[in-house]
TrEMBL record:
Organism, as annotated: Azospira restricta
Keywords: Methyltransferase, Transferase
Protein name: Methyltransferase domain-containing protein
CDD domains the record matches: AdoMet_MTases (cd02440)
Domain of life the protein comes from: Bacteria
MF terms (GO), sorted A to Z: methyltransferase activity
Domain Methyltransferase: 39-133
Pfam families: Methyltransf_25 (PF13649)
A biological process term (GO) from this entry: methylation
């Protein structure tokens, strides 16, 4: 479900939803980025996280963001900084060779995908990560606050979000081949952070 319509206001409204600099910093910290690493962000939007990753890995590394919305990629390219590249692509058909990246990010994007696309996309991310690589996921999870259920309960009828709200994201990650899958806490009692590793030599 591309969000091209939101591109002009995306960087304005995300912080107002609680997805500002502190949220981005918490996401980046879980990746344990080092200079020289190669990083992929799927569903990069306007590229905020991709640019932060590029700064963390330095000139010896690189960060690539992909998104299915041309409008998002256009804004991301306008704001691109050294080491950050942006491509129009979908998670279920990544245009990269096997074992191309050390780290991948999927931030607040899996809930836009129907279950079959979640499965296919996460298998693709697993494929392009090197052995020992890591995927960092932040997305909707079972609400920890009953008040959130009052707002989000209707989304249980929507295939794209139902699996998230039922707490099924770890299962999707495990089916794609990732292990271990570890949850690292919550954001706003609604989103969860997970790391999912690809076994093998680091």
């Amino acid at each position: 479900m591309p969000l091209g319509w939101a591109a002009p206001i995306y960087d304005w409204y995300c912080p107002k939803l609680g997805l500002g600099p502190k949220f981005r910093a918490a996401t980046i910290a879980l990746a344990k980025l080092r200079p020289g690493m190669k990083v992929l962000e799927v569903g990069c939007g306007t590229g905020v996280l991709t640019r932060l990753a590029a700064a963390a890995v330095g000139p010896q590394g690189a960060a690539v963001g992909i998104d299915p919305a041309p409008e998002m990629i256009a804004v991301a390219r306008q704001k691109a900084e050294a080491g950050a590249q942006f491509r129009l692509a979908v998670i279920e058909d990544l245009p990269f060779a096997d074992a191309s990246f050390d780290v991948a990010f999927a931030s607040a994007m899996l809930h836009h995908l129907p279950p079959a696309t979640k499965d296919a996309g996460l298998r693709e991310v697993f494929r392009v990560l090197r052995p020992g690589g890591r995927l960092v996921v932040v997305d909707l999870d079972r609400p920890a606050n009953p008040l959130w259920w009052l707002l989000f309960f209707p989304l249980l009828a929507w295939p794209m979000t139902a699996s998230n709200l039922r707490g099924e994201i770890p299962g999707f990650l495990a089916r794609a081949g990732f292990a271990p899958v570890v949850r690292h806490g919550r954001w706003l009692q609604l989103l969860s952070f997970w790391t999912a590793d690809k076994g093998g030599a680091s």
